[in-house]
Design a protein that fits this description.
Length: about 375
């Protein structure tokens, strides 16, 4: 196991310079799909902890670093210097590393799932890790809940561009994703208008329509399709035809990847890798073909994809991520094991992970954002 031995507790070179034996050694891990702002959380948490005289370790690639499949590294002030504005995560991430369902390749090429949680906990113990900050979405929250049940001391920071974690007003990464989608909509407007075309743009979000709804309303889309409001393609075409009839010869349709027609289901993209969740996508292309067939209008589709996850986090996301990182360290100091930090404006609070996982967060079709979108003439295809 790379670097684990060197990090065994008491190795003076790796402890905080101002103290001989740290009062506390914490570790940070980032799991699931990355989101702009992860590095700002890592930086804020590491600095807050180091300034308390604690030792901080970074677990590489989700929990792989604690299972001998990647590294565990010391996070010193130097390591986290100048990273707050960077996208991605210096600790890397994976969406295939659930320690309770870890994929193992068999000699015949097939995969089985193994529970490797005891190994993870034992390696954390050997490293003298007193507490863990797990930064992730639903999957990471579930892992944290189960590790807590086995006695590990874990505090969570919610992360996802999809904004589908309940208990928090928003998650960092969402604002950046919305702004990226918004810029794309602005660009599509000019080309769509020049060619009298319909442009269908697919955005991320899994089973939640927040990115589509927020970017679509802010970007003055004509149609927004979200999983929470199943659509009728006839109604979508009605809106496009109506626009034509009043001389607006182009239309912009923003569709969440998880959207589906009434009585239908969302699109899946090929096969998932072992240990990976179902990959959602492909709806924009299907809708574009239907619109062209029904209306006779030239229609193009575009999948914005991982552009929404990359790049520099917005100021809002950097600030939220930094507040979450600081709050996670305070939660450890207050021994709030099994809790997640959350934004309940204007405050950052902590909530039991169980409570968060017990509730699904989706767009409420009667929310003011949806009502305002309808009032301004946007169609939801219903
Ligand atoms: O959950 C974040 C997210 O970006 C979803 O919006 C999207 O469906 C999924 O991850 C894509 O995952 P991957 O990076 O594995 O393609």
């Amino acid at each position: 196991m790379r670097r684990l031995d060197a990090l065994a507790r008491g190795t003076s070179a790796l402890t905080h310079p101002s103290i001989i034996t740290p009062q506390m050694r914490i570790a940070i891990s980032t799991g699931g799909g990355d989101a702009p702002g992860l590095n700002a959380v890592i930086r804020a948490a590491a600095l807050s902890a180091i300034n308390r005289g604690w030792d901080v370790l970074g677990i590489k690639r989700g929990f792989a670093g604690l299972m001998g499949e990647d590294e565990v590294i010391p996070l010193t002030k130097n390591e986290v210097r100048g990273i707050g504005h960077l996208g991605g995560t210096i600790l890397r991430s994976t969406n295939r590393g659930h320690p309770f369902h870890y994929p193992r390749k068999q000699p015949d090429g097939s995969y089985i799932e193994e529970d490797r949680s005891d190994e993870l906990i034992e390696n954390a113990r050997k490293l003298g890790i007193d507490a863990l900050i797990s930064i992730g979405g639903d999957g990471s929250l579930d892992i944290a809940r189960r590790l807590c049940a086995k006695g590990m001391k874990v505090v969570c920071v919610p992360k996802t561009i999809d904004n589908d974690v309940s208990g928090t007003v928003t998650t960092f990464g969402f604002d950046t994703a919305v702004n990226t989608a918004l810029e794309a909509i602005d660009r599509l407007h000019t080309t769509a208008e020049s060619h009298d075309r319909v442009m269908v743009m697919e955005v991320m979000g899994r089973d939640a329509g927040f990115i589509a709804l927020h970017s679509g309303l802010a970007g003055s889309a004509d149609v927004i399709l979200i999983p929470e409001i199943p659509y009728d393609i006839g109604k979508v075409c009605e809106k496009i035809r109506y626009r034509d009839s009043v001389g607006r010869m182009f239309s912009i349709v923003v569709v969440a990847e998880g959207a589906f027609p009434r009585g239908g289901h969302s699109h899946t993209l090929g096969e998932s890798l072992p240990g990976q969740a179902r990959r959602i996508g492909g709806v924009a292309d299907a809708i574009a073909r239907e619109i062209q067939m029904i209306t006779g209008k030239e229609t193009r589709s575009l999948v914005l994809g991982h552009l929404q996850r990359g790049g520099v986090p917005t100021g809002y996301d950097r600030l939220l991520a930094t507040r979450f990182g600081g709050a996670a360290v305070r939660a450890i100091a207050d021994e709030k094991w099994g809790q997640m930090v959350a934004l309940q404006s204007p405050n950052i609070v902590t909530l039991p992970i169980e409570e968060v996982l017990g509730e699904t967060k989706r767009v409420n079709p009667t929310h003011d954002v949806v009502m305002t979108a309808r009032a301004t003439g946007i169609s939801f295809g219903d």
